[in-house]
Amino acid sequence: MNTQPTVLVSVSKTGVATLTLNRAEKSNAFDPNMITALLTALEQLKIRDNIRCLVLNANGKHFSSGADLNWMKSMALKTEAENKQDAAQLAALLERLYRFPAPTIAVVQGAAFGGALGLICCCNITVASPQAKFCLSEAKLGLVPATIAPYVCRAMGVRQAQRYMLTTELITATMAQTLGIVHFVNDDIALQTQHIINSLINNSPNALRTIKQLCQQCENNPIDQTLINYTSDLIAQIRCTPEAQEGIHAFFEQSQPSWSIRHDNKDH
């Protein structure tokens, strides 16, 4: 019996948190234990003020084959009320990842099927190997991608999401990049991820967290006077923060602000 944790959690000295799916023998299929582990880790990490970014990756050949079929089989024997309670956990995980305060990076190799694509679409930036394959495979099993749909539809657009949910066709890494699911396709996904981390930790932590909130407000609300007022109030507040004042001063002085981290540091 495998007694290894289903999720590995680490934080580098430069504030890069990493969550690693750790059921390689099951193609990192997620089950209630993995969902709970991810929820717990995200809850603990979000209250730490030293986290600069979060990397979500996986051990083994595949990122994740989606929901564990033995779990799905067991839930089919339970009541609708029990299923609703069970599904709420996955919905909570997706929402917590989507709203994680620091920038998030998904690093994908091999298969990323079903609910795994939901996790990826909750992240801000996605790096994939050229061999990565994506699939919204639920309809093949008589299921629907319900909890992940809000995030997938935002990532690729409703029309494209409908197509791939209905046809369940495979999406290559190149096509995923065209659809907006993936931002970078690279044979060396570790090196590409490090380049992104270097860019993020060279920027103001407060600015990055605020940009995430700003983008979610713009995504979820109409362009009306409320949103316009929100954006003008936001920039007024940000201009007066110590980080903004330090950043502008450093620019004119041609110096590094306190949050910038040298990229020759091997520990991220």
Task: Describe this protein with a few key phrases.
268 residues; alpha/beta; six-stranded mixed β-sheet; three-stranded mixed β-sheet; 11 helices; 9 strands; 48% helix; globular
Describe this protein's structure:
The structure is a single chain. With 268 residues, the chain is α/β, with parallel strands linked by helices. Helices cover 48% and strands 13% of the residues. It is built from 11 helices and 9 strands. The strands form 2 sheets. A 6-stranded mixed sheet has the order 1-2-3-4-6-9, sandwiched between helices. Strands 5-7-8 form a 3-stranded mixed sheet. A hairpin with a 4-residue loop joins strand 1 (7-11) and strand 2. The longest helix has 19 residues, at 80-98. It is globular, with a radius of gyration of 20 Å. The two termini are 34 Å apart. 33% of the residues are buried. The model has no long low-confidence stretch (mean pLDDT 92).
